[in-house]
Amino acid sequence: MDKLGLKREIAEICRNIKMESEAHLLAAIKDAEQSANEYGQPKDRYDSYRAQLSTKRDMLSSQLRKVQEEIGLLDRIDLTRECDSAGFGSVVITQAQKVFISIGIGKITLNDGTEFFAISAAVPFAKAIRDHVKGDVVEFNGRKFEILDQF
Fold first, then answer.
1. Residues 127, 99: Cα–Cα separation, whole Å
2. Is residue 115 assigned to a domain?
3. Is residue 81 part of a domain?
4. Which of these, 33, 54, 114, 128, could form a disulfide with 140 (CB 3.0-4.6 Å)?
């Protein structure tokens, strides 16, 4: 598979994971709201059950906003060109690991079984390899990594 095709596949898998999370959160928010509506009016001003449902809905809404922001970040990645150096939106392959610098998801497995790590651009490893290119040797946590490929 060509480099851009590989990058598109990785990005699509990441997007699908986040879209699935979004769907689950929307269902959970709907369920919490439905439970609150079925419970009816507060029994008194110290009604803790209704407060719990409200807190749960607010927490889920906060998580939903974060997931939607991450989907927006994935949508901003230009999948039509190779990156000039390691940074947000690039795929970096070292002898130790293969990473996609985008959002923090963790290990993802492609259709052919190849494993990549989707990492945030804010993590220390991504910061250590930022602006480096194929052939550069980067030191991280006392270990040296050669960038075998980057696109």
1. 13
2. yes
3. no
4. 128
What are the DSSP calls for 19-70, one per residue? HHHHHHHHHHHHHHHHHHHHH-S-SSTT-HHHHHHHHHHHHHHHHHHHHHHH
- DSSP 3-state assignment of 14? helix
Amino acid code (one letter) for 127: K
- The CA distance from 126 to 124, in Å, is 5
pLDDT tens per residue across span 50-95: 778 888 889 999 999 999 999 999 999 999 999 999 999 999 999 9
Is 71 domain-assigned?
A: yes
**How far apart, in whole angstroms, are the C-alpha atoms of residue 127 and residue 131?**
9
3-state SS, residue 138:
strand
φ, ψ of residue 44 in degrees (nearest 5): -155, 180
Whether residues 66 and 25 share a domain: the answer is: yes
* Cα end-to-end span (Å), the chain: 13
Total domain count for the chain? 2
Domain span at residue 49 reads 3-76
pTM: 0.85
